[in-house]
Amino acid sequence: MENKNPIISFKDADILNGEAVVIYGLDMEVYEGDFVYIVGKVGTGKTSIIRTVIAENPLEKGFGKVCGYDLSTLKEKDIPYLRRKMGVVFQDFQLLMDRSVNDNLEFVLKATGWKDEARIADRIRSVLNAVGMERKAHKMPHQLSGGEQQRIAIARSLLNDPQVIIADEPTGNLDNETADGIMKLLTGINREKGTAIVMVTHNRQIFEKYPGKVMLCKDETCTLQDSGDLIDLELTI
After folding, report:
1. Domain 1-85+162-237: what homologous superfamily?
2. Residue 51: partners with Cβ closer than 8 Å, 6 or more residues away
3. How confident is the model at residue 15 (pLDDT cuts 50, 70, 90)?
4. Does the pLDDT value for residue 6 go beyond 80?
5. How far, in Å, CA of 170 to CA of 200, rounded?
6. Could you identify which of 75, 141, 213, 223 might form a hypothetical disulfide with 95, taking C-beta atoms 3.0 to 4.6 angstroms apart as the criterion?
7. Euclidean distance between CA atoms 104 and 93, whole angstroms
8. Which residues of 32-42 are buried (b: 16+ CB within 10 A; e: fewer)?
9. Residue 190 has pLDDT above 60, yes or no
10. Which residue, 10, 171, 173, 199, is CA-closest to 87?
11. In the chain, what are the domain boundaries?
């Protein structure tokens, strides 16, 4: 692993929320095959890290590189190309409610430069099959359960074969059983494809059941935890 370049790398990076620094001196590296949790109380900067990774928030101090792009020198015209190298999954699914599952996925592919209709159809079939939703392509989002909508959102994140999936509280609006299914799906993608996953969560049960690296946001820092330290996190998250 030490001979590979990290997909995400921050060194002594200050993370902003608006104009305020919420995390000082972030050091973080994510490699192919990693499953990384970012945990902490509300307001400790978890989502601000995600917004920095996807270039929604600027990086003004320190080093940050994501999918080969230096965040401190990233030009606005290059942001869409950066985002094509990653998949993003949100807590509230963010599907387009006025079009079918197939048309949601087709919209993303065409927006990211796909033109060949046969290739588009093949890719949509492939990602829906990967998340167990191959029979739902014709459905409208409102006809799907929350768990099914999140599976479609994960399928959408896979469309451009990303190096990393960024998942911001992907189980936050789901019951425990449905959340468990989503975690099995994400860990399976991570294990079988080697796709790195960076997941924000406040649910301790998830990262205990599905182990990975844990970054704890607390007191304006975010640091990698030793497995032994996780015992004391109950009151922190």
Report:
1. P-loop containing nucleotide triphosphate hydrolases (3.40.50.300)
2. 57
3. very high
4. yes
5. 8
6. 141
7. 12
8. bebbbbbbbee
9. yes
10. 199
11. 1-85+162-237, 95-161
